[in-house]
Amino acid sequence: xxxxxxxxxxxxxxxxxxxxxxxxxxxxxxxxxxxxxxxxxxxxxxxxxxxxxxxxxxxxxxxxxxxxxxxxxxxxxxxxxxxxxxxxxxxxxxxxxxxxxxxxxxxxxxxxxxxxxxxxxxxxxxxxxxxxxxxxxxxxxxxxxxxxxxxxxxxxxxxxxxxxxxxxxxxxxxxxxxxxxxxxxxxxxxxxxxxxxxxxxxxxxxxxxxxxxxxxxxxxxxxxxxxxxxxxxxxxxxxxxxxxxxxxxxxxxxxxxxxxxxx
Length: 263
Ligand SMILES: [Zn+2]
Ligand SMILES: [Zn+2]
Known about the structure:
9 helices; three-stranded parallel β-sheet; binds zinc ion; alpha/beta
Protein backbone atom coordinates (compact mmCIF):
# COMPACT_ATOMS: atom_id res chain seq x y z
CA UNK A 1 0.00 0.00 0.00
CA UNK A 2 1.46 3.34 -1.07
CA UNK A 3 1.00 5.92 1.67
CA UNK A 4 1.19 9.45 0.31
CA UNK A 5 -0.70 11.71 2.71
CA UNK A 6 -0.72 12.50 6.40
CA UNK A 7 -2.95 15.24 7.79
CA UNK A 8 -2.14 14.87 11.49
CA UNK A 9 1.25 16.12 12.70
CA UNK A 10 2.44 17.82 15.88
CA UNK A 11 5.49 19.92 16.74
CA UNK A 12 7.48 20.60 19.91
CA UNK A 13 5.13 23.47 20.75
CA UNK A 14 2.47 21.17 22.24
CA UNK A 15 4.98 20.06 24.90
CA UNK A 16 4.59 16.32 24.22
CA UNK A 17 6.00 16.11 20.69
CA UNK A 18 9.52 16.71 19.39
CA UNK A 19 11.06 18.82 16.63
CA UNK A 20 9.65 21.47 14.35
CA UNK A 21 7.73 21.86 11.12
CA UNK A 22 10.75 21.61 8.83
CA UNK A 23 11.95 18.41 10.52
CA UNK A 24 8.60 16.80 9.74
CA UNK A 25 8.79 18.10 6.17
CA UNK A 26 12.24 16.56 5.68
CA UNK A 27 10.99 13.27 7.10
CA UNK A 28 7.89 13.41 4.91
CA UNK A 29 10.03 13.85 1.78
CA UNK A 30 12.31 10.99 2.88
CA UNK A 31 9.33 8.74 3.52
CA UNK A 32 7.74 9.56 0.18
CA UNK A 33 4.73 11.56 1.32
CA UNK A 34 3.20 13.98 -1.14
CA UNK A 35 0.91 15.82 1.27
CA UNK A 36 1.76 16.77 4.83
CA UNK A 37 -0.73 18.51 7.08
CA UNK A 38 0.79 20.17 10.13
CA UNK A 39 -1.85 20.15 12.86
CA UNK A 40 -0.41 20.97 16.23
CA UNK A 41 -2.73 21.29 19.21
CA UNK A 42 -4.22 24.72 18.66
CA UNK A 43 -3.42 27.79 20.67
CA UNK A 44 -6.49 29.11 22.48
CA UNK A 45 -7.15 32.80 23.14
CA UNK A 46 -7.64 32.16 26.86
CA UNK A 47 -4.70 29.72 27.08
CA UNK A 48 -7.05 27.05 28.45
CA UNK A 49 -5.59 23.58 29.03
CA UNK A 50 -2.02 24.87 28.55
CA UNK A 51 -0.24 21.59 29.30
CA UNK A 52 -0.81 20.04 25.88
CA UNK A 53 -0.66 23.01 23.54
CA UNK A 54 1.29 26.05 22.45
CA UNK A 55 0.54 29.29 24.21
CA UNK A 56 -1.52 31.90 22.42
CA UNK A 57 1.59 34.05 22.10
CA UNK A 58 3.26 31.32 20.00
CA UNK A 59 0.51 31.22 17.39
CA UNK A 60 1.93 33.80 14.91
CA UNK A 61 5.31 32.07 14.90
CA UNK A 62 3.68 28.62 14.44
CA UNK A 63 1.72 29.94 11.48
CA UNK A 64 4.77 31.66 10.01
CA UNK A 65 6.93 28.54 10.35
CA UNK A 66 4.43 26.60 8.22
CA UNK A 67 4.29 29.42 5.66
CA UNK A 68 8.11 29.31 5.50
CA UNK A 69 8.09 25.54 4.98
CA UNK A 70 5.51 25.92 2.19
CA UNK A 71 7.97 28.21 0.41
CA UNK A 72 10.98 25.97 1.04
CA UNK A 73 9.63 22.49 0.21
CA UNK A 74 8.52 22.77 -3.41
CA UNK A 75 7.90 19.04 -3.93
CA UNK A 76 5.72 18.57 -0.88
CA UNK A 77 2.19 19.88 -0.46
CA UNK A 78 2.18 21.35 3.04
CA UNK A 79 -1.09 22.26 4.70
CA UNK A 80 -1.49 24.57 7.67
CA UNK A 81 -3.79 23.08 10.26
CA UNK A 82 -4.53 22.70 13.93
CA UNK A 83 -6.15 20.08 16.15
CA UNK A 84 -8.90 21.84 18.08
CA UNK A 85 -11.27 21.29 20.98
CA UNK A 86 -14.55 22.91 20.10
CA UNK A 87 -16.32 25.32 22.41
CA UNK A 88 -18.94 27.83 21.25
CA UNK A 89 -16.85 30.72 22.55
CA UNK A 90 -14.00 29.68 20.22
CA UNK A 91 -16.14 29.45 17.10
CA UNK A 92 -15.32 32.94 15.80
CA UNK A 93 -11.63 32.51 16.67
CA UNK A 94 -11.36 29.24 14.74
CA UNK A 95 -13.31 30.59 11.78
CA UNK A 96 -12.14 34.20 11.51
CA UNK A 97 -8.63 34.09 12.99
CA UNK A 98 -7.30 30.64 12.11
CA UNK A 99 -9.20 29.80 8.91
CA UNK A 100 -9.54 33.48 8.03
CA UNK A 101 -6.80 35.91 8.96
CA UNK A 102 -3.98 33.37 9.38
CA UNK A 103 -4.90 31.34 6.32
CA UNK A 104 -5.15 27.91 7.91
CA UNK A 105 -6.06 25.29 5.32
CA UNK A 106 -8.06 23.10 7.68
CA UNK A 107 -8.89 22.29 11.29
CA UNK A 108 -9.22 18.90 12.97
CA UNK A 109 -11.80 18.47 15.71
CA UNK A 110 -10.81 16.38 18.72
CA UNK A 111 -12.47 15.66 22.04
CA UNK A 112 -9.50 15.69 24.41
CA UNK A 113 -11.82 17.39 26.91
CA UNK A 114 -15.60 17.50 27.12
CA UNK A 115 -18.20 19.00 29.43
CA UNK A 116 -19.66 16.64 32.03
CA UNK A 117 -22.14 17.88 34.64
CA UNK A 118 -21.17 21.47 33.95
CA UNK A 119 -17.41 20.97 34.18
CA UNK A 120 -14.79 20.15 31.58
CA UNK A 121 -13.17 16.76 32.11
CA UNK A 122 -10.29 15.10 30.26
CA UNK A 123 -11.09 12.32 27.80
CA UNK A 124 -8.32 10.18 29.24
CA UNK A 125 -10.38 8.86 32.12
CA UNK A 126 -13.41 11.12 31.82
CA UNK A 127 -15.56 8.77 29.74
CA UNK A 128 -15.25 5.85 32.18
CA UNK A 129 -18.94 5.93 33.19
CA UNK A 130 -22.20 5.74 31.28
CA UNK A 131 -22.79 9.44 31.94
CA UNK A 132 -19.25 10.26 30.86
CA UNK A 133 -19.58 8.23 27.67
CA UNK A 134 -22.88 9.93 26.88
CA UNK A 135 -21.39 13.38 27.49
CA UNK A 136 -18.38 12.52 25.32
CA UNK A 137 -20.65 11.49 22.43
CA UNK A 138 -22.85 14.57 22.78
CA UNK A 139 -19.81 16.85 22.76
CA UNK A 140 -18.27 15.01 19.84
CA UNK A 141 -21.46 15.48 17.82
CA UNK A 142 -21.68 19.17 18.80
CA UNK A 143 -18.11 19.59 17.55
CA UNK A 144 -19.04 18.07 14.19
CA UNK A 145 -22.15 20.24 13.97
CA UNK A 146 -20.00 23.37 14.26
CA UNK A 147 -19.03 22.85 10.63
CA UNK A 148 -15.47 23.93 11.41
CA UNK A 149 -13.65 20.64 11.07
CA UNK A 150 -12.40 18.82 7.99
CA UNK A 151 -12.39 15.58 9.99
CA UNK A 152 -12.60 14.39 13.57
CA UNK A 153 -9.58 12.81 15.26
CA UNK A 154 -9.75 9.47 17.10
CA UNK A 155 -13.54 9.32 17.67
CA UNK A 156 -13.04 6.10 19.64
CA UNK A 157 -10.77 7.78 22.21
CA UNK A 158 -13.33 6.91 24.90
CA UNK A 159 -12.08 3.32 24.68
CA UNK A 160 -9.02 4.35 26.72
CA UNK A 161 -11.17 4.36 29.86
CA UNK A 162 -14.55 2.79 29.01
CA UNK A 163 -13.27 -0.73 28.63
CA UNK A 164 -16.35 -2.79 27.81
CA UNK A 165 -18.02 -2.90 24.42
CA UNK A 166 -21.65 -2.90 25.52
CA UNK A 167 -25.02 -1.31 24.79
CA UNK A 168 -23.74 2.05 26.07
CA UNK A 169 -20.73 2.17 23.74
CA UNK A 170 -22.93 0.90 20.91
CA UNK A 171 -25.55 3.62 21.46
CA UNK A 172 -22.94 6.36 21.81
CA UNK A 173 -21.08 5.14 18.73
CA UNK A 174 -24.27 4.85 16.67
CA UNK A 175 -25.10 8.46 17.50
CA UNK A 176 -21.60 9.55 16.44
CA UNK A 177 -21.88 7.60 13.17
CA UNK A 178 -25.36 8.89 12.38
CA UNK A 179 -24.16 12.47 12.85
CA UNK A 180 -20.94 11.88 10.89
CA UNK A 181 -23.00 10.39 8.08
CA UNK A 182 -25.53 13.20 7.88
CA UNK A 183 -22.95 15.97 8.35
CA UNK A 184 -20.42 14.21 6.10
CA UNK A 185 -17.55 14.74 8.52
CA UNK A 186 -14.86 12.06 8.11
CA UNK A 187 -13.75 10.07 11.16
CA UNK A 188 -10.11 9.26 11.75
CA UNK A 189 -8.60 5.84 12.29
CA UNK A 190 -5.66 7.08 14.33
CA UNK A 191 -2.23 5.59 13.82
CA UNK A 192 -0.81 6.97 17.06
CA UNK A 193 -3.17 4.73 19.01
CA UNK A 194 -1.55 1.76 17.30
CA UNK A 195 1.86 2.87 18.59
CA UNK A 196 0.80 3.68 22.14
CA UNK A 197 1.06 1.12 24.94
CA UNK A 198 -1.75 -1.42 24.89
CA UNK A 199 -4.26 -1.70 27.72
CA UNK A 200 -5.49 -4.80 29.51
CA UNK A 201 -9.25 -5.13 29.90
CA UNK A 202 -11.54 -7.98 30.96
CA UNK A 203 -11.90 -8.82 27.28
CA UNK A 204 -8.12 -8.99 26.77
CA UNK A 205 -5.26 -6.80 25.64
CA UNK A 206 -6.02 -4.18 23.01
CA UNK A 207 -5.16 -0.72 21.75
CA UNK A 208 -6.78 2.16 23.63
CA UNK A 209 -7.82 3.20 20.11
CA UNK A 210 -8.51 2.35 17.36
CA UNK A 211 -11.08 0.09 19.02
CA UNK A 212 -12.10 -2.55 16.47
CA UNK A 213 -15.78 -3.05 17.43
CA UNK A 214 -16.25 0.70 16.97
CA UNK A 215 -15.00 0.51 13.40
CA UNK A 216 -16.94 -2.69 12.71
CA UNK A 217 -20.10 -0.84 13.69
CA UNK A 218 -19.01 2.14 11.56
CA UNK A 219 -19.28 -0.07 8.49
CA UNK A 220 -23.08 -0.07 8.90
CA UNK A 221 -23.10 3.67 8.13
CA UNK A 222 -22.20 5.72 5.09
CA UNK A 223 -19.40 7.46 6.91
CA UNK A 224 -16.01 8.34 5.47
CA UNK A 225 -12.80 7.34 7.19
CA UNK A 226 -9.34 8.87 7.12
CA UNK A 227 -6.11 7.28 8.33
CA UNK A 228 -3.33 9.42 9.76
CA UNK A 229 -0.14 8.89 11.75
CA UNK A 230 -0.80 11.60 14.38
CA UNK A 231 2.98 12.04 14.36
CA UNK A 232 4.62 13.36 17.50
CA UNK A 233 8.17 12.64 16.20
CA UNK A 234 9.48 13.27 12.65
CA UNK A 235 10.36 9.60 12.15
CA UNK A 236 6.68 8.75 12.72
CA UNK A 237 5.42 11.09 10.01
CA UNK A 238 3.88 8.20 8.06
CA UNK A 239 3.84 5.56 10.80
CA UNK A 240 0.89 3.19 11.08
CA UNK A 241 -1.08 4.87 8.28
CA UNK A 242 -0.94 1.67 6.23
CA UNK A 243 -2.11 -0.37 9.21
CA UNK A 244 -4.93 2.07 10.02
CA UNK A 245 -5.97 2.11 6.37
CA UNK A 246 -5.97 -1.69 6.31
CA UNK A 247 -8.38 -1.75 9.27
CA UNK A 248 -10.83 0.46 7.41
CA UNK A 249 -10.43 -1.37 4.11
CA UNK A 250 -10.95 -4.77 5.73
CA UNK A 251 -14.31 -3.49 6.98
CA UNK A 252 -15.28 -2.00 3.63
CA UNK A 253 -15.16 1.60 4.86
CA UNK A 254 -15.01 4.37 2.31
CA UNK A 255 -12.11 6.80 2.68
CA UNK A 256 -12.40 10.56 2.50
CA UNK A 257 -10.72 12.57 -0.23
CA UNK A 258 -9.33 15.79 1.23
CA UNK A 259 -7.59 16.97 -1.91
CA UNK A 260 -9.89 20.04 -1.91
CA UNK A 261 -7.75 21.36 0.96
CA UNK A 262 -4.81 21.68 -1.42
CA UNK A 263 -5.91 24.97 -2.89
ZN1 LIG B 1 -0.93 15.22 20.91
ZN1 LIG C 1 -2.96 14.73 17.54
